[in-house]
Amino acid sequence: MVYSELIKDSVVANINISNRPILSKGYYLNLALLYARLGFYVFPVKHDKFPYKGFEWTKLATNDPSEIIKMWQVYPYGRPAFYCKPSGIVVLDTDNKPEKGKYGFRVLKELIGKLGPLPKTVLVYTQSNGTHMYYRMPKDRGFIRNYKNCIDIQTNHYCLCGGVYTPKGSYRFAKGYTFDDIKEIPELPPNWVDFLTNQKTIFHYENSERTFAYQKPEVEGDFKILYEECLLCKTAVDKAQVLKEEAWFAFASILSDLKNGWELFDKFSQPYPDYTPEKTLEKFKQGKKYKLKCSCIAKKVSICNECKYYKNKGEKNDKIK
After folding, report:
1. What is the C-alpha separation between 299 and 251, in angstroms, rounded?
2. What proportions of the chain, in percent to the nearest 5, are helix, strand and coil?
3. Cβ(161)–Cβ(32) under 8 Å?
4. Cα–Cα distances in angstroms (integers) from residue 8 to residues 3, 15, 139, 172, 239, in the given order
5. Pseudo-torsion of CA 74, 78, 81, 83, nearest 10°?
6. Could you give phi then psi for residue 57, rounded to 5 degrees?
7. 125 beta partners
8. Do β-strands 169-174 and 11-12 pair in parallel, antiparallel, or remain unpaired?
9. How do residues 122-145 score in pLDDT, each as one tens digit?
10. Domain ranges of the chain
11. 199: Cα separation from own chain's centroid
12. I need a surface site. Which of 4, 35, 201, 211 has the fewest CB within 10 A?
């Protein structure tokens, strides 16, 4: 099947165009195979973008057609996603939601003015009113995870493939920026690489010093109240590198009450030394099963006993719930 024929209904000239075509049988399998043919390591995810329970996508993502066919026999309605790292792709994931204080397009324009233009590449409009831009990943460079809380630099995570539709939106190719238009995915320019890898934060803890290619995300929205009032939440953001497992579990339980709890938990977990997207998702799902109160958390997480809000009010979570 010709690539352009398969995704013709998913190529749009404007980010604001709304369409939801009737998909042919086997559409997502064929889309996965086409991405694999281009060298991407793909795997199926659920309609809500989450991996299937028990599916170890970091190990099973592949560009082997026979293995991909087997995957879609098990998950026939799976939406194809690709694992950036083995695919050799870094994705600039711009989130543009002015109503939530995320001005991704404005920030990207500012960066272009500062660092110079980006090469024309495959561009996908995302369901978050943003874009995915594909570039070849340089070797042996550790990128920051997020810039100004509106541009994610996807290197060790996954992105949904262009041409995917979900109940909440779509991932469609910009006209003139498909794989047919871009014969070879370009490299990210050296000055962009330097800028997105050299913003290091040095953390000092007790007798050790560790350097991470990580920029602490901005704290905003409903979570800002928790960050300011809850010592556990503040510690999880400011000192993620040394937070113990029981504290992460409690943090997951607290965030599960927020609408964007999973996104926050994943974002703040990334500087943790043993972070993997797969383990983080499982940890969040486990924490979501329990509604822990301060008195219960404080029995296992000692830092909570130093929390002024806990001492004064007893139950910090009640303020948010």
Report:
1. 14
2. 40, 20, 40
3. yes
4. 8, 15, 34, 10, 47
5. -20
6. -65, -30
7. 131, 172
8. parallel
9. 999 999 899 999 999 998 788 888
10. 3-196, 212-319
11. 19
12. 211
Q: Are 287 and 249 in contact (CB under 8 A)?
A: yes
Contact 261, 196 (CB under 8 A): no
Locate 284 and state its tokens. 């969040």
Q: Where does the chain have alpha helices with state H?
A: 3-6, 27-37, 57-60, 65-74, 84-87, 104-115, 190-197, 221-229, 231-238, 245-255, 261-269, 277-288, 294-300, 308-313
Taking alpha carbons only, the member of 153, 81, 88, 84 closest to residue 118 is: 153
- 269-285: per-residue pLDDT in tens? 876 666 777 778 888 88
- Both tokens of 224, joined, read 């800002």
93 strand-pairing partners = 132, 152
The overall average pLDDT reported for the chain is 84
Specify the amino acid at residue 63.
Answer: N
- For 76-131, how does the pLDDT look when each residue is reduced to its tens digit (9 = 90+)? 999 999 999 999 999 999 999 888 888 999 999 999 999 999 999 999 999 989 99
Which of 41, 76, 77 has the alpha carbon at shortest distance from 59?
41
Tell me the chain's radius of gyration from C-alpha atoms. 21
Q: Which is more confidently placed, 310 or 57?
A: 57
Do 3 and 179 touch, CB atoms closer than 8 A? yes
The pLDDT tens digits of the residues spanning 168-219 come to 899 999 999 999 999 899 999 999 999 998 544 444 444 444 444 445 556 6
